[in-house]
Design goal:
Layout (H helix, E strand, L loop, with lengths): L11 H52 L5 E4 L2 E10 L8 E10 L5 E10 L2
Antiparallel strand pairs: 1-2, 2-3, 3-4
């Protein structure tokens, strides 16, 4: 019994289509892996920036003055102390804010804010 020539193997177009499908699936997988890695890096940066902000906030509250700034690793931070006007009665308060930015891009990564008694 002889097999017709047409049914002996894959045609070239079938092989090209299979490779194209594999390429598309691979590209989608690579995109998912890349976005996951970027999200992980963003979360790690946010966590580190929050630790820097907490330290800077403690320093700003302890120093009793605003306008101090510094650099910690990949981040630059600055603090501001302004009078708090939200409380009508009671002792005078100050609003202490710390902004942490990425040193390279300048984008704000995180900011923390607290109130303290005015000195």
């Amino acid at each position: 019994m002889t097999i017709p020539l047409r049914e002996q193997g894959f045609a070239l177009i079938e092989a090209v289509v299979a490779l194209a499908v594999i390429g598309v699936v691979s590209a989608m997988f690579l995109g998912a892996v890349t976005s996951t890695a970027q999200a992980r890096r963003h979360v790690a940066d946010a966590r580190a920036a929050t630790l820097v902000a907490r330290s800077a906030l403690d320093l700003a509250v302890a120093s009793g003055r605003g306008g101090i700034s510094g650099r910690d690793g990949a981040f630059v931070w600055s603090s501001a102390v302004t009078p708090y006007t939200g409380a009508a009665n009671g002792p005078p308060l100050q609003d202490v804010t710390v902004m942490v930015r990425d040193a390279q891009s300048g984008r704000t990564v995180t900011s923390l804010r607290t109130l303290r008694l005015a000195r």
